Amino acid sequence: MYVAVKGGERAIDNAHAFLAEERRGDPAIPDLSVAQIRAQMTLAVNRVMAEGSLYDPDLAALAIKQARGDLIEAIFLIRAYRTTLPRIGHSRPVDTGAMACIRRISATFKDAPGGQILGPTFDYTHRLLDFKLAAEGEAPQAPTGAGLADKMPRITDFLNREGLIQDEPPGEDTPPDMTRAPMEYPAGRALRLQALTRGDEGFVLGMAYSTQRGYGRNHPFVGELRIGTVTVEMDIPELGFAIEIGEITLTECETVNQFMGSKTEPPQFTRGYGLVFGQTERKAISMALVDRALRWKELGEENEGAPAQDEEFVLSHADNIQATGFLEHIKLPHYVDFQSELELIRKVRGAAQAAARKEAAK
Amino acid sequence: MKADAMSGGFADAPIEAAHGFRAILGALSCPGAIVTVAGAAPPPPLSPAAGLAALVLFDGTTPVCLTGAHDSAAVRDWIGFHTGAPLVGPGQAMFALGDWVSLQPVTRFAIGTPEYPDRAATLIVEMDSLDNSGALLRGPGIGGTVRLSLPDIAAFQANRALFPLGFDTFLTCGGRLAGVPRSTIVEAG
Amino acid sequence: MSITPALDRPQALGLLARAPADRLTALFPDLPPHETLRAPEVGAVMVRGRQGGTGAPFNLGEMSVTRCSVRLPCGTAGHGYVQGRDKDHARRAAVLDALLQTSAADQLHASVLAILAADEAERRAARAARAGATKVEFFTMVRGEDQ
Lengths: 362, 189, 147
Known about the structure:
The structure holds 3 protein chains of 3 kinds. Chain A is α+β, with helices and mostly antiparallel strands. Chain A has helices at 9-24, 34-40, 42-52, 57-66, 71-82, 155-161, 189-197, 201-212, 281-294, 311-317, 320-328, 335-361, and strands spanning 54-55, 87-90, 100-105, 220-236, 241-259, 268-277. Helices cover 39% and strands 26% of the residues of chain C. Chain C starts with 8 loop residues before the first helix and ends in a 15-residue tail after the last helix. Classes of the chains: A alpha+beta, B alpha/beta, C alpha+beta. Chains A and C meet through strand 1, strand 2, strand 3, helix 7 and strand 4 of A and helix 1, strand 1, strand 2, strand 3 and helix 4 of C.
């Protein structure tokens, strides 16, 4: 039961003012600009765009500043903002095969055509704190090499040629959109991928890790991980043709999973797929593992009852804004329903004590 | 697309859309009340009132069915440019727009489902005349009764019998419109 | 009436959409008189991907886009769709789209589009060159049993 509680207005105003002052921190230290966050906290900006489900680095950087670096709060701000935007339309499906890659690696083929491009990765850093960064004014320059091919071939295409990997069925159907219609189960792969790409990184990572530890094991290899920019094309009715409306950075992960065959499918490799806004490779790999785990039914696999195989469980708990909304609301005033709980406990206790006294008097 | 199709929209979209939406909301919550609206200058035979309803209610996620003379290149282009609404057949339509005769049979349009009664169509019926005479309307939003020149009585009675399912209706004529939601009880006057 | 064959209308619109707004303003600061058909509007476009990279589409997430439509006194209409939320950028793109369909096209191609295209090519080449420097060159060790 929810009852309006009056009288907190001045306290709330002052709390907002206190929050603003705390956000700014010590005024002797220079103010952090949105441009600085956008340019130097890029991976935080990327996470906010991916889970906020809106590609707009300026807004994501502003949200991070406003949220004092609390990324889930920043994602909440982005989600709230995006509901105010009119939907102009939808893009043509982006062509990740034509991605201008800054990173592209394969864990399955050393000599992958196009090469292994490490890109700006943490992978081979020693994870030792770099105290040089504490000094200001550094502007390192990366060495340059020969440019890359415009179009990197897909690793899975090589397996495909031999028929060793399950085919990706083509289609042009309008995909369902969970932001427009309530989720209904079974959801289908298009909806699952939409829910996973905007899902909480920690949750999707945890689910993916659970499959590696044996809860719905699916033997994944990273067939290919690529990060780079793709252009976004959209059909414009008043023009009568499609134009590029922008360019976005994406991370794509294709896993190749060992599969011994089922009643309906021959032994072959199967795929898991992750595609996420921004440079977000932990999330994209996690997404691919969870996508693969959720495909047990269409591949005729056994349901082991693992959490990552349970579509309704995964999809209804992946969204951190839904989760935090429901979780955090319990700290808001519940005075009246708690009063009724209090009465109930007093009554039951009273009855129990009376019974005990009666028993003792016997 | 002809350049004509690109004029006649809102000059000041946030303000005019808000006023338009408020007027339409008022019309639907006070069935039978005739409200005057402004802001849209659509190509004929689309009336300014129906054009306003289109600008305010249609977007890329609301499939629209145009019937009769309203299913013309000029109207299609105008709605396409200003609202982005996809044009579809009667079964998939969230909105249907035409005169009463061309909309027949109105049973073609979605009435929602028990789980999602909101998945019903809204009909925008272009009228030659619209005044407070004829059929007697009662029900939510009406203080007592009100008369409205409905194009048909039996069809609205049949629709009311489906409640809480059923389509909702706007009647438009020139720059004026009235709402007849599915909750309204209709009697021959 | 046609713009230079090097860049057709969709390509020009794409270039205008991706150009940094301040760069475009610097290259083409003053807008000629025009009528607004659709005032600049900030909205969202649902970006789609493909399942497995090549399969059926799914909804990936939205991006912010601003669009605007204008008409020149000569009657030529222009449309701008640009990434982000900059209304001036969208209007400038729409006006340029209209002008690029007039006799001003050749001159604008040289003074605006060619420069934007060069900027973009330079930006892309710089990224690709840095990525190229991180390409792994494997040394294969000769192992005993292979001899």
